[in-house]
TrEMBL record:
Gene3D superfamilies: Tetracycline Repressor, domain 2. Residues 13-73 form the HTH tetR-type domain. It comes from Rhodococcus spelaei. The keyword DNA-binding applies. This is Helix-turn-helix transcriptional regulator.
Length: 193
């Protein structure tokens, strides 16, 4: 006879995948701003309470959508080939990290922006903390002077989806120009005085 807890875990995993698939379809069809907990529940054919129990909030749902992409980026900068991964100059790695982040915004910007609206995720979410730690580590390896944590926070701010999307959509600045400008900023900050 099957363990009831195992059956429940399988059901929970299946529901989570069903809800994330429904949310991804809605983002593709309507954009992230149009995705509500009600719409996800309706698309998945479940009650709204199921969505709230699984993700807690709309921001939690948006965060879950990004988890897979974020995990891939983290794997790339921890274990992948240079210049993003180990083995390259720390400044080149930091530049590659910023360019990879900007590529994420280019593809999933609306979802990233939706996650940024939740203060607990915008400034203290797990992905943000990993990126911040990685940036501080690279600044340290590059023998950068100053308050490295604050420098890292300042360097990551221009990569936030809300700002990048504003620059691209409202100011019509090409993403390549944003990436080149960010590289210039990194190289200036890491230059020894």
């Amino acid at each position: 006879m099957a363990d009831p807890h195992e059956v429940e875990r399988c059901d929970a995993a299946r529901n989570r995948a069903l809800l994330l698939d429904a949310a991804a379809m809605l983002v593709a069809e309507r954009g992230a701003d149009a995705v509500t907990m009600d719409a996800v529940a309706a698309k998945a054919g479940v009650g709204k309470g199921t969505v709230f129990r699984r993700f807690g909030s709309r921001s939690g749902l948006m965060q879950a959508l990004l988890d897979h992409t974020e995990t891939e980026l983290q794997h790339a900068f921890m274990f992948g080939p240079p210049p993003l991964g180990p083995g390259a100059d720390p400044v080149d790695r930091l530049v590659a990290y910023g360019r990879a982040r900007l590529s994420m915004v280019e593809v999933q910007g609306d979802v990233l922006r939706a996650v940024e609206t939740a203060p607990e995720l915008r400034f203290g979410g797990p992905a943000r903390n990993v990126g911040l730690t990685h940036t501080v580590t690279l600044l340290t390896a590059a023998d950068t002077h100053g308050d490295l944590r604050l420098l890292a926070i300042s360097l990551l701010a221009p990569l936030e989806a809300s700002l990048v999307l504003h620059q691209v959509r409202s100011l019509h600045i090409p993403i390549d120009r944003i990436a080149d400008s960010w590289e210039d900023l990194v190289r200036r900050v890491t230059r020894a005085p």
